[in-house]
From TrEMBL:
<dbReference type="InterPro" id="IPR007159">
    <property type="entry name" value="SpoVT-AbrB_dom"/>
</dbReference>
<dbReference type="GO" id="GO:0003677">
    <property type="term" value="F:DNA binding"/>
</dbReference>
<keyword id="KW-0238">DNA-binding</keyword>
<dbReference type="InterPro" id="IPR052975">
    <property type="entry name" value="Repressor-like_regulatory"/>
</dbReference>
<feature type="domain" description="SpoVT-AbrB">
    <location>
        <begin position="1"/>
        <end position="46"/>
    </location>
</feature>
<dbReference type="Pfam" id="PF04014">
    <property type="entry name" value="MazE_antitoxin"/>
</dbReference>
<protein>
    <recommendedName>
        <fullName>SpoVT-AbrB domain-containing protein</fullName>
    </recommendedName>
</protein>
<dbReference type="InterPro" id="IPR037914">
    <property type="entry name" value="SpoVT-AbrB_sf"/>
</dbReference>
Length: 77
């Protein structure tokens, strides 16, 4: 168990051995969750973590955006 001090702006320093074990580097995004009386920090995922997980639907981002806007307009009508 490690103890850290909360600084005036609510910041904490994650101990070096914990950062190393979790692969946390400067600039990484962490997810913070409340779990009853606990605070849980998890390493956040980036868009690159999802690369290759979606099927190729043969549509560009621009085409998908146009389709989404068109569908949203239909839903509002």
């Amino acid at each position: 168990m490690k103890t850290v001090k909360v600084l005036p702006k609510g910041q904490i320093t994650i101990p070096k051995d914990v950062r190393k074990h979790m692969g946390i580097k400067e600039g990484d995004t962490l997810v913070i969750e409340k779990d009853n009386d606990k605070v849980v920090l998890k390493k956040g995922k980036t868009i690159f973590d999802y690369a290759g997980t979606l099927p190729d639907i043969g549509m560009s981002i621009k085409e998908m955006r146009k389709k989404a806007i068109k569908e949203a307009a239909k839903d509002r009508a």
